[in-house]
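Handout, page 2. Input:
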Amino acid sequence: MKRITVLLADDHTIVREGLRAILQLEADMEVVGEACNGHQAVALATQLVPDVVVMDLAMPLLNGLEALKRIRASTPASTKVLVLSSYDDAAYVQQARALGAAGYLVKQNDAHILATAIREIYQGRVYFKPIKPVSLQCP
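Output:
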């Protein structure tokens, strides 16, 4: 079985490590690279041509929306971008979608949703699910 190749782009090391740990549990996924800023995300996406780029919006040097735009311009249509952000504003979702994102998740969602979203967009579908309500109490 072909594994879904994933590039992680987030400026927080602990977040990237957590995402990698989550995705390593999935037999059909392989993290092929990590970027800590928007410029690195564009360069690695162009070089590695992953199936899916998991992209944060708030990144240094080049924000996630501009990086998304450049990735869409420099990689084949088979490379999909899934935005994973703490921003739950509908305007960001609309901007990301307009720039070519295949999906959008907020970081407040449960971890298992990430693998589901990656599989969905890898298979050519979009994944723009409702935002999980934020609770004042952590589980």
